[in-house]
Write a structure and sequence with these properties.
With 298 residues, the chain is an alpha/beta fold. Helix content is 52%, strand content 13%. The protein has 14 helices and 9 strands. The strands form 2 sheets. The protein has a 6-stranded parallel β-sheet with strand order 3-2-1-4-5-6, sandwiched between helices. A 3-stranded mixed β-sheet has the order 7-8-9. β1, α1 and β2 form a beta-alpha-beta unit. α4 runs parallel beside α6, α9 packs across α12 and α12 runs antiparallel to α13. The longest helix has 29 residues. It starts with a strand and ends in an 8-residue tail after the last helix.
Length: 298
Amino acid sequence: MERIGFVGLGRMGRPMAGNLVRKGFPLAVYDINPAAVRALVEVGAKPANGVPGVVEGSDVIVTMLPSGIEVDAIAAGPDGIFAHARPGQLVMDMSTIEPRTTDKLAAEAAKRGLAFVDAPVGRLASHADRGESLFMVGGTEADFKRVLPLLQAMGTTIHHCGPVGSGIRTKLVNNLLAVAGCQLNAEALALSQRLGLDLAKTLEVIHGTTATNGQLKLNWPGKVLAGDTAPGFSIDLAHKDLSLIIAAAQAETMALPMVSAAREAFTMARTAGHGANDFSAIVDWFCSVSGAAKPRLR
């Protein structure tokens, strides 16, 4: 069994790393937050002495970080993964970052005799807790097969989307619909409340037509419509993803007018102090500025 190193133990990375430990993978972990490292050590992981320690004791190095800035620094910085790696190791980045950063790091890894896979995560933090994540993987067939046992330990649905870079590009297309759709849901439910409609009956109608969508039907009833706005995926992160989506489109000289409008709504929600809330809570912000009652299923 290959030795695994894991860098980035945030809300998504921590349960994913924990699932690897529970499935018996030898795991070395590092995070700038010592408490996050201690939590993984308590369930059987080994603490690493920074990024160099992760690289030294691992065959496969996994990164799960907030943005491309951190991924680039951890991978290609002067004391990062590439500086200490040896040929034959594999780097798997599971962060949601700019595709051009993925391409750059994959090219640099190849120069050093390293394999590189991008495998961004679908679904929510609650799915990661239960080992039910979805992964969109970019890499060669051989590299995909190499990381498949890890992905199976952390999730239930794994898609090999194509060569390196295909995973993150698929993730951006997916999140275009998931995140921008939240703003449409928010406007629809705010209007329903201004019109004095019964929320449960309105949803029953919507879910019986082609107007329904996964966020509104599967995610929202257990989150914002139940009054739970604790972040599984925050408004701040949703805004980041919308920005990545727009940048990727602009790199292809393509306009995304509806996504751009949705990003501005998320920008205003962040300005109003809602950034740390779950992205489904965009409806609470929109109702507050629209003079509508917060929609709640009783």
